[in-house]
Amino acid sequence: MKKPEKIMLLLLKEFRYHKHPTLRRTSKIKNPYKTLISCLLSLRTQDKNTAKASKSLFKIADTPEKISKLPIKKLEKLVYSSGHYKKKSRTIKEVSKILIEKHNSKVPNTKPELLAIKGIGPKTANIVLSFAYGQNVIAVDTHVHRIPNRLGLVKTKTPEQTEPELGKLFPKKYWREINTTFILFGKNICLPISPKCSQCPLNSLCPKVGVGKRR
Ligand code: SF4
Fold first, then answer.
1. Which residue lies with its CA nearest to atom 8 of ligand 1?
2. Is the CB of 190 within 6 Å of ligand 1?
3. Cα–Cα distance, 98 to 101 (Å, whole number)
4. To test ligand 1's pocket by mutation, which of 8, 188, 208 has the most ligand atoms within 8 angstroms of CB?
5. What is the DSSP letter of 206?
6. Helix (H) / strand (E) containing 3
7. For the segment 111-134, what is each residue's pLDDT rounded down to a tens digit?
8. What is the pLDDT at residue 149?
9. Is 35 helix (H, G, I), strand (E, B) or coil?
10. Which pLDDT score is estimated for 17?
11. Is 7 a pocket residue for ligand 1 (Cβ < 6 Å)?
């Protein structure tokens, strides 16, 4: 068995029964608009803040039309707990307006169409395609970028460079699970600073590229 697949199987075994919301996301197809808005709210904040802001917002408005009609101050108040609430509110408004005007209030299901909408980047686009449309894509965030570099699987400088490299290494059947599994692994074991190498199921396989202080 090749190294990437071995790594994936060890991580899936480690986290299979973990009751974490990010892992549960893979098993259920979500509402595309709510997935998109939650993803925009999740930028640069913790999961619990995203969940709180999304819950407050969707209780009041959960469609492009409803969010477009919300006064900006009210929207800012609803998503305040996600941080960067002013910028996020403006983005959410603009994205909703474009969906209404150009996409008949629907979230597109192709990457070029999603990326053409100002405010939607590659990671958000892939999260929507993966979790809302069940497409086999690899959504790369900071954890999904950092971990394969430490493992010596890729040698890349940005998440945008990492995505196609992972696509070449991992069989397609794992693509959707890479995001959730690596994020969970990155938050619990392969931490950004001082990773817990002594507790890591991948310890013997890992060259620990660029890892300084470790536990
Ligand atoms: S051994 Fe350390 S650096 Fe390598 S994957 Fe595990 S936690 Fe990360």
1. 190
2. yes
3. 5
4. 208
5. -
6. helix 3-15
7. 999 999 999 999 999 999 999 999
8. 98
9. helix
10. 59
11. no
Output the six-digit token pair for 140. Answer: 């790369």
For the chain, the domains span 3-20+138-205, 30-132
Hey, what CATH class is 3-20+138-205 in?
Answer: mainly alpha
Residue 54 corresponds to which amino acid? S
Pocket test for ligand 1, best of 200, 209, 213, 215 (most atoms within 8 A of CB): 200
The fraction of the chain above a pLDDT of 90, given in percent, is 86
The pLDDT tens digits for 137-161 are 999 999 999 999 999 999 999 999 9
Is the pLDDT confidence value at 90 over 60?
yes
- Residue 207 alpha carbon, nearest atom of ligand 1: 4
Q: Which CATH number fits domain 30-132: 3.30.1330.40, 3.90.78.10, 3.20.20.70, 1.10.340.30?
A: 1.10.340.30
Rounded to the nearest whole angstrom, what is the distance from the C-alpha of residue 201 to the centroid of ligand 1?
8
Q: In whole angstroms, what is the distance from residue 197 CA to residue 214 CA?
A: 6
